[in-house]
Every structure is written in structure tokens, then in C-alpha cells.
Amino acid sequence: MRPRPRMLAVALGVLALGLLGYTQRATVAVWLAERGLARIAANSDPLSALADGLHVGLCGAGSPFPDPERSGPCTVVIAGRDMFVVDAGGGSAAQLARMQLNPGQLKAVLLTHYHSDHIGGLGDLLLQRWIGANATRPLPVYGPAGLQQVLAGIETAYRLDAGYRTAHHGETVAPPAGFGTEPRPFDLGAAERRVLIDTPELQVVAFRVDHGPVSPAVGYRFRYKDRQVVISGDTRRSAAVQREAQGVDLLVHEALSPQLVRMMEHSFVRAQRPQLAQIMADIRNYHASPVEAAQLAAAAGVRMLVFNHIVPPLPVPGLEAKFLEGTAEEFDGPIKVGRDGDWFSLPAGGHSIERARRP
Ligand SMILES: [Zn+2]
Ligand SMILES: [Zn+2]
Asked: Can you say how many angstroms the Cα of residue 191 is from the centroid of all Cα atoms in its chain?
């Protein structure tokens, strides 16, 4: 009999605390938000917290398809203290921010080709980088032939916005000279590859891939000290990717599941939408399947394979297993189906590849 009043008191206490928490939820939420904001605001140089080496993050693991887990194509590569972004699909700048990286620290953007899904977020990214750094010089952007046309169009579209920003925030925050891009086009001509950056510590190479009728289309290889990553760009299975990926630590390769895309094609046929059905048939011939990429990874002897540009989206649990079907038989290293926020660290002077989510 004696414990009962005590139990009642405890239950009433818990209830009172719960009610207090509920009625004060806005105060608690503001307190939590202030702590989070203080941490983000104080972190203007997130690169300084990284170990010396090569770091690769997926700031967009998706494709033109809407995918809640994957923004448009974007891969961030940090080599020592230099931050590069390969492709700037829709949502890239927002995803970089979610990964607590500062676009103001971008050294350059490198574009693989000019399909809309790879450039759709470039305007936003340029704005975030400009204001984030109060930049007084435009951002270098590398790309194959066609670059100036694309950049001139984007700069024209954003020039009014740039004027508003300077008028509103002043020239210290938004210096007019820092708006826009400094095009660094490279013409492959008859060559298969071109070295873009070549210092004792960092080498960046562009190489021609096979995404016809889209031409030119390139992939990129980064070597920082003794660590290397290859990013395939959009391509069907390509001997050039295999050549460049020979023995590298990490291969980030695009992948399209022919079985799942064929399933979509049949759905559109049944729905009597023949144009969409045709697109589902057409796209299968200029992308690589997961099995083809795994075969290539094995032939090149890479240490880890990461899929990006995931087609189609994989909204139902278990579809990822279908997407990967047959890959483990071809490549016995680790394979990862990329999602926004995936993070791979390759410390210089070591052999490890540390996988994480960022943040
Ligand atoms: Zn694409
Ligand atoms: Zn493409």
C-alpha cells in the first residue's frame, strides 16, 4: 500500500514535466537552433578541420530524375586545402551547405559536359561562392569545348541578380569584380586527355569519355600526393575510364540500371505515353550499367567503387539490392550506391579509405 502515493507523485511529476516541455517547446527549439547556428557561424573554414589528403563527397548523387535522396550531379573533391566541384546539378549549392562546406572556399568548378542536369545548379553555386567569400575575382570554371557559350548564358541570366545584391549589401559584401566566372576552356582536339593542373602535389587530368551524341564529354582524374580518385562523368562503358582508373584508390562511376529503366518504359507503354517510353529506351544506350562499371573497376584494379548519377531513383527499400544485382560477382572490393552526403577520406601517406556521412 505504501508505494502507491510515491508512484502517483512520480507519475504526476513526469506528466508536469512533459506538459512544461510541450508548452515551452518554442523556447527549447530556439535554444537548440541558437546553439546550432553558433556552431555553423563560427565554422567559416571547415577545410582546416580535415586531415591532409584527398576527400571526396557526394553533393549530388542523382540524375535528371526527381530523387529525395539525391540532388543533381555534383562531386566535391578536396585535395589538401583546395576545394573543387565536378558538375553543378540542381541543388548542389544547398547540398554543399548541408554538408557544412563553405562554397566561398571553392577553388574551381570542373564541368564534364553540358547536359542540363550537370549545370542546372551552377548559377546558385556561383552566387553562394561569390557572397560566401566576398570574392573580388570571378570563379575559374573548367570545361571542354562549348564552355564559353554556357557560362555567358548563365552570367547573363544572373547579372540582374548580381546588381541587386551589390546595391542592397554594398561592394564590400558583394564586390562587382567577383561576380561570375573565369572560363578555362580546354580543347581536346584529337587528344584523348589533357593535364589541367600539374603541381608537385596535385595533378588534375581531363579525359574524353563516350556519351555520344553528347560530345565532347569528359571525366576527371585527381591525384593528390599519393592518393587518386577518378570521376567518370556520364558515359557508357569506356576504355578511357578504365585506362585512367588503373590502380586508383576510388572510382566514382555513373550507373543506370537497365532492368529498372526497362520497367519504367513498360509502365509508360501501358499508360499510352509513347514519347516517355521512347526516352526510357533511348537513355539506356549512353550510360553504363552497374555490372559494366563493376567489370571496369575490376579490370582497372581500383580499391573502391562508388556509384553516382543513380538512374532511376530507388524509393522502395530493396530496390538498391536489385540495382546492385550481379556487381559483387564482378568486383570483390567495396561498392557503395551513392547518396547525398556520402563522404570518403583518403589520408595522404596511407592506404585507408574512411567512409562517413557528412555532417
Ligand atoms: Zn547526366
Ligand atoms: Zn549526360
From this structure: 28
113 Cα–ligand 2 center, Å:
7
Asked if residue 246 belongs to a domain, the reply is yes
Q: Which residue type is seen at 334?
A: P
Q: Compute the distance from residue 173 Cα to the ligand 1 centre, in Å.
A: 34
CATH of the domain at 86: 3.60.15.10
Q: How many of the other CB atoms lie within 10 Å of CB of 130? A: 27
Question: Average pLDDT of 103-116?
Answer: 97
Q: Which residues are catalytic?
A: 117
Say how far apart CA 158 and CA 181 lie, in whole Å: 11
Mean pLDDT of 321-342: 98
DSSP codes joined into one string, 250-318: EEEEEEE-HHHHHHHHHHHHHTT-HHHHHHHHHGGGSS--HHHHHHHHHHHT-SEEEEEEEES---STT
Q: Is residue 163 part of a domain?
A: no
Q: Which ligand is nearest to the CA of 90?
A: 1
Total of domains in the chain: 2
CB 46 within 8 A of CB 36: no
Amino acid at 242: Q
Among 195-199, 315-319, 344-348, the least confident range: 315-319
Position 1 scores a pLDDT of 53
Q: What is the pTM of this model?
A: 0.92
Q: What's the 257 CA to ligand 2 centre distance in angstroms?
A: 15
Ligand nearest to the CA of 70: 1
Note whether 126 and 96 are within 8 A (CB). Answer: no
Pairing type for strands 82-86 and 74-79 reads antiparallel
Q: Distance from the CA of 53 to the center of ligand 1, in angstroms?
A: 28
> Domain residues for 53?
46-113+189-357
Long-range CB contact pairs, 191-200, < 8 A, 24+:
192/240, 193/240, 193/244, 196/110, 196/142
